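User: I've been trying to design a sequence by hand for this structure and keep getting stuck. Would you show me what you'd pick, starting by listing the structure so we're on the same page?

Assistant: Good idea, let's start from the same input. This is the structure you sent:
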């Protein structure tokens, strides 16, 4: 165990998945010691390394006196075990198997402690597939929703078309993976992940088409706790109206909708990915509201 930035204790942990891969995680604990007030797993967005969330996780651990788990999906970051060109993982592996394994690990480690989940983009989509969804007191999704290339702001649709119908396919076919520089965040994606992600975003219904096929059939009745759907005012990838549509996947839950204004973060722009960066720290209490 080591001290992280003098603010909390931190552990490096390994999270086993039922089908074999082991995920590399970091667990943040409040300094107060004893049993934390709650345990939360942070599921990341597509192609975003776990360490991007570390400062938020450390802050949340103190702010809510929580145990906070962050980790890399299989074939990504610290969980990678070979070249991305050889990776066979897809979005379903990350949303179902990896997110489920992380939730299971946290529930076992902190048995009897209230359990919460926070998911960024893809990170907010997996809970209906997880057996322990009924144990989750609160799910907070951030910039999560059933995307479609026609549902971006008008000025952004051309960029989306170029990505899904030209740049993404050509790069993936040529290289055998999607280079992260196309996403603007530096994390390369396995080819299978790109093609599945593309299928979801160019068809109406998003990932419903894969239910019972590439994805297991989810149980939408499992989550009966609180679901907070948080949108970002200037998010062009998952605009606030698309975030609202995510409520359809939680018919048994108590759903509330929230939009974070750019002004709350004290910056000029937030967009889809920046809300968890330290420069947007002024807005973090809106994500962590007790």
């Amino acid at each position: 165990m080591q001290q992280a930035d003098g603010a909390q204790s931190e552990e490096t942990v390994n999270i086993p998945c039922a089908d074999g891969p082991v995920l590399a995680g970091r667990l943040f604990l409040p300094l107060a010691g004893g049993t934390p007030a709650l345990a939360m797993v942070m599921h990341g967005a597509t192609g975003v390394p776990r360490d991007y969330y570390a400062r938020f996780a450390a802050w949340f651990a103190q702010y809510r006196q929580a145990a906070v788990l962050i980790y890399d999906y299989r074939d990504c970051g610290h969980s990678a075990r070979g070249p991305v060109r050889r990776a066979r993982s897809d979005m379903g592996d990350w949303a179902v198997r990896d997110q489920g394994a992380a939730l299971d690990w946290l529930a076992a480690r902190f048995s009897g402690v209230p359990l919460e989940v926070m998911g960024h983009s893809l990170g907010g989509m997996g809970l209906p597939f997880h057996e322990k969804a009924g144990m989750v007191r609160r799910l907070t999704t951030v910039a999560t929703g059933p995307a479609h290339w026609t549902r971006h702001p008008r000025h952004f649709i051309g960029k989306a078309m170029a990505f899904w119908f030209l740049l993404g396919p050509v790069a993936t076919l040529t290289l055998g993976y999607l280079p992260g520089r196309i996403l603007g965040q530096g994390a390369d994606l396995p080819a299978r992940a790109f093609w599945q992600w593309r299928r979801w975003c160019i068809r109406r219904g998003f990932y419903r088409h894969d239910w019972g096929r590439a994805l297991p059939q989810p149980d939408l009745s499992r989550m009966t706790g609180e679901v907070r759907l948080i949108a970002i005012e200037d998010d062009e990838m998952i605009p606030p109206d698309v975030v609202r549509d995510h409520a359809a996947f939680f018919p048994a839950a108590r759903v509330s909708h929230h939009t974070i204004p750019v002004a709350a973060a004290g910056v000029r722009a937030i967009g889809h990915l920046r809300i968890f960066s330290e420069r947007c720290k002024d807005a973090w209490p809106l994500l962590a509201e007790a």
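That's my pick for every position. To get oriented when you compare it with your attempt: Residues 1-7 have pLDDT under 50 and may be disordered. Residues 2-152+218-287 form a domain with the Rossmann fold fold (CATH 3.40.50.1820).
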